[in-house]
Amino acid sequence: MQLLKQSDKPLFGDILWNKPLSRSGSGRLLIVGGHKSQFNICQNAYMAAVAAGIGECNLIMPDSLYSLLKHAPHITFVPSNASGALGKAALADILEQVSGCDGIMLPGNLSTNSETTTLIESLIRETGKPLILGAEALRSIAFNLKLATARPKTLVAAEMPGIFDFANSLKVAVSFKHQDSILNMSDLFEKLMDETNCDYLSWSGAGLIAAASKQCSLSAIAGELPPGWYEGAATVFWLQYQSQPFEALTTAGFILAQAAGEIKTDNPPSAEIEQALRWAIKTYS
Questions:
Q1: d(Cα 228, Cα 211) in Å, to the nearest integer?
Q2: Hey, which of 61, 128, 238, 253 has its CA 20 to 30 A from 214?
Q3: How far lies 90's CA from each of 40, 66, 70, 269, in Å?
């Protein structure tokens, strides 16, 4: 499989030029996650989705976070379990919110306890909406991955170690037959696309990899963004261009690479990342 590479121009400029402008046509995303005092990945994904142009974004978090986040907008609190993670009693509340969205994202800050796993598995079974799964969600359903891999309209968005864990759980052989690690990754995603119905976005020091429709692309990246930003921004492009998943994810990779290159400080504040992301979309649209 050929690996397409992006440098200083997006391979698919039409995706940016034709990006929806109206809020009503830009999609509605529901982000589900959070665990006791942990919510940074979900928060980052929310900010990334808003900066990337989602029409509406709402979060669902366990009520163990209520005292910390009760004044934050766009959050619905649902029952938590004894450990402060999402409890299985939250399913009805989540499904009620799902009916009004175009896609559901589980980026992280979850738990591998049995009750949260049961909730996530039930949620996947009960909805046919486009689904975006991060590494923690994949680990949570590691013994029942076919729930995600056999369904249509699923995006796996995870850093490369999470992709390797996912491939191992699926018993997809990872062979390193090239000295170039980029080609190794391309081979891996080709096998994953053969074995699953999923689209993929992943990142490492080598860059951002997008894989869908039996195609694979690489966007070189000169910087690193915190967890949640990659998957949050890419989800917006993927939801807005469901008929062109490869082009959408490849373009998201380009925008994220440009935004990361604009950030000049270590451990940048969220406002700086958000500004860089908005700048990249505006500059190349």
A1: 19
A2: 128
A3: 21, 14, 18, 32
Name, in order, each residue with C-beta under 8 angstroms of 175's C-beta and a sequence gap of 6 or more: 184, 187
Q: Say which DSSP state 144 is in.
A: G
Token representation of residue 209: 């990899």
CA 94, 99, 101, 105 torsion-angle sign: positive
d(CA 161, CA 203): 9
DSSP state string for 221-282: -SS-PPTTHHHHHHHHHHHHTTT-HHHHHHHHHHHHHHHHHH--SSS--HHHHHHHHHHHHH
Say how far apart CA 236 and CA 104 lie, in whole Å: 11
For 84, 136, 181, the CA distances from 33, given in Å and listed in that order, are: 11, 10, 33
Which residues are registered as beta bridge partners of 201?
157, 210
Question: What local confidence, expressed as pLDDT, does residue 183 receive?
Answer: 62
β-strands 131-133, 199-204 pairing: unpaired
Please state, in angstroms and as integers, the Cα–Cα distance from residue 66 to each residue in 46, 77, 96, 136, 228, following that order.
Answer: 17, 7, 20, 22, 21
DSSP codes joined into one string, 72-103: -TTEEEE-B-TTSSB-GGGHHHHHHHHTT-SE
CA distances 144 to 121, 162, 174, Å, are 8, 16, 20
Nearest Cα neighbor of 61 from 97, 9, 16 is 97
Residues of the chain short of pLDDT 70, as ranges, are 175-183
59, two tokens = 């979060």
pTM flag (> 0.90): yes
